[in-house]
Amino acid sequence: xxxxxxxxxxxxxxxxxxxxxxxxxxxxxxxxxxxxxxxxxxxxxxxxxxxxxxxxxxxxxxxxxxxxxxxxxxxxxxxxxxxxxxxxxxxxxxxxxxxxxxxxxxxxxxxxxxxxxxxxxxxxxxxxxxxxxxxxxxxxxxxxxxxxxxxxxxxxxxxxxxxxx
Length: 165
Hints:
- The chain contains four helices and seven strands, in the order ααβββαβββαβ.
- By secondary structure, it is an alpha+beta fold.
- The chain has one domain (25-164).
């Protein structure tokens, strides 16, 4: 076996090990939320420093006060759906061409008993899109693989309180 094949097989083994270590997502918080004994609730949600009182029936937002926040209110189920987007592409072909994507990186802390998200940090990170020719064109032009040197964006979403109805 040539040296090149040994290197390729070694890299494949390392990659397979990394994939095996990734494991499934932690569903315990969502399971605790699904096991709750109430369907309707009121919560205070802060998103982009805008505090809103949100009334939810089932999984649907039925009332939000005030209506002046630039972003929509969300139910707890919608917050869980947002958390599940961790690692997915938030903005494809960002920054003027398709050399870079903005990828979601999401961290969340959950309520210890009910499981709902207490604090979510959402970051959009510029990441090379190696599947598109623009990325390779930019890398060759700049003579570097560090082609997505854009500012990373971040925001926080906080559930300050949640009261069953």
